Fold this sequence. Notes:
3 helices, 39% helix, Arc Repressor Mutant, subunit A, alpha+beta
Amino acid sequence: MPKPRQTKIGTVEAMLRQPGGTNVMALCEATGWQPHTVRAALSGLRRAGFTITRTRGAEMGDPTTFRITADPEAAE
């Protein structure tokens, strides 16, 4: 049985589910997308119902991390 194909948005979602989250540059490297495309994908996930938290870096210049903290509510 062939392995299901991993999509780029699936990669983004998987990276956002990591306990420490991820940053825009890591998402750019993983997908080959530009930063504005990554931010648009984050907005799309939010519109789809995901709760994504944003944590600013502790020091000036540290990257902001993003993480999925809640999945969309199940449609009834």
